Structure formats: C-alpha cells, structure tokens
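Justification of resources, computational component.

The compute hours requested in this renewal are based largely on the per-chain cost of generating structure records like the one below. Each record pairs the submitted sequence with a full structure-token output. That output is archived, and it is also reused by downstream analysis tasks.
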Amino acid sequence: MSCEDLLSAIEQAEAGPSSGDIEGAPMIDNWFLVWRDGDAIRADGDVSSHPEVSEPWVTTSPVLSFQYDFDLETGWLRTMSRWYRLGRLRAVPVASPDPQAKRREALDAAQDLLRRHREAWRDQIESGGRPVATDLPESSTARIDGPTEPLGPVTGLFI
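The structure output for this chain reads:
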C-alpha cells in the first residue's frame, strides 16, 4: 500500500461509508478489537462473504475507523484494505456491575486511539515518513512505501 493509498483510506474512514461501500462488504460477526504489543488495532471475528479469505475466523488488517450501534447490533468498520459490515459484538466476560457500559467505554477508548493513530499516520506521511506500527512492514495486507518509524508498543483488548 502506498502512502497515497493510506491517506485515501484514512479520508474514506473519516467520512464513513457510502451505501455502495457497505452493500457488498464482508460481514464480521462475533467480533472484538485487539491491540497487540507493537501493532495497530485490528478486528478479530467470524467473517463471511470475504472475497479473499475462506477461513471462518479473521484478523483484519489495521483498523482505521468503525461505528457500532449496540441496540441494533450492527455497524461498519474500515481497515487499511477494505470496508466490513459489523454484526454482533463478541460477548467477552467483563467484571463489572454494568458490562454493557464497560463495553461501550472500551469501544469509545478504541475510537479515541484510532483517531490519534490516523492523525499520527497522516502527520508522518506529510513529513515524508512512513506511518506504521512495528509489524506492518512485513505484513502483506498493509505494506507502506517509505522509511519506518513505529508509533510504539502498547497491549490491550477492546471488547
């Protein structure tokens, strides 16, 4: 993926999908967001109607943005490589008197982190750098052309 392609994907993610983007998009159900040490945020879940993946479980390329409606259990997700439709969020056990509120809080935190990643990647591209997390240069789904400077390692699970 070129820096121009990444900038375009970031702009698309920030604008949100058109109906055409979502109509034919693969579906991820039973999904959750993960942030592994030194990596960008990715989504894991059961995928269907994916044009390149035949396995039922998928870990996406880095996530750029998403929107999820807890009441309707539906939404969308934009990765570096494509749009996805979101189904039901995975019911990860949460030690809280109000697990749903904790899940909402976790997804809000993920949204904030994704916004900061997009801003950092955009700034790195505009300054002539290469906007990647530690593992992205070797990734076949998210190769970026240019010099590398990782954003830094943190580990977490967004439910």
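DSSP finds three helices and nine strands in the chain. The beta strands are 27-35, 42-48, 57-59, 63-69, 74-79, 83-86, 131-132, 149-150, 156-158.
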